[in-house]
Amino acid sequence: MSHIVTVQEAVTAFADWKEPTDAELDAIELEMPAILADVDLVDAEIAALDNRPTELDARRIRRARRKALAARCALTNQAAAERGAA
User: Fold this and answer.
1) Is residue 2 part of a domain?
2) How far apart, in whole angstroms, are the C-alpha atoms of residue 6 and residue 81?
3) Structural domain includes residue 15
4) Which of 73, 46, 74, 75 is closest to 60 using CA atoms?
5) Which domain holds residue 31?
6) Which of 7, 23, 41, 54 is at a distance of 20 to 30 A from 78, taking alpha carbons?
């Protein structure tokens, strides 16, 4: 009979080298407008699922999609500009 055991160190250990680096935190901060726009989109979609969607719900979803797309486009354009300058 084999026993199933968890590896305690792998599950609970947080060494210094496992923390996000400054570069990773900067990348997250750079993507934050796109992340927040995606959250707004999901919130609008969830609100529409709660009951029968109205025209107002459809407008909220369209607005949130446009906001998310604009944030992703801005992020992509910024990354392309940085690559071109480098």
Assistant:
1) no
2) 47
3) no
4) 46
5) 20-85
6) 41
Q: Which of 47, 70, 73, 76 is nearest to 60 (CA)?
A: 47
Average pLDDT for 57-81: 95
Residue 10 falls inside a structural domain:
no
20 Cβ contact partners less than 8 Å away, ≥ 6 residues apart: 28
In whole angstroms, give the CA distance from residue 41 to residue 70: 12
Widest Cα–Cα separation across the chain = 62
- Predicted TM-score (pTM) of this structure: 0.71
The answer as to whether 9 is a domain residue is no
Instruction: Specify the length of the chain in residues.
Output: 86
Tens-digit pLDDT profile for residues 31-46: 999 999 999 999 999 9
Supply the pLDDT for residue 86.
64
Quote the number of domains for the chain: 1
Triad 64, 67, 70: Cα angle to 5°: 150
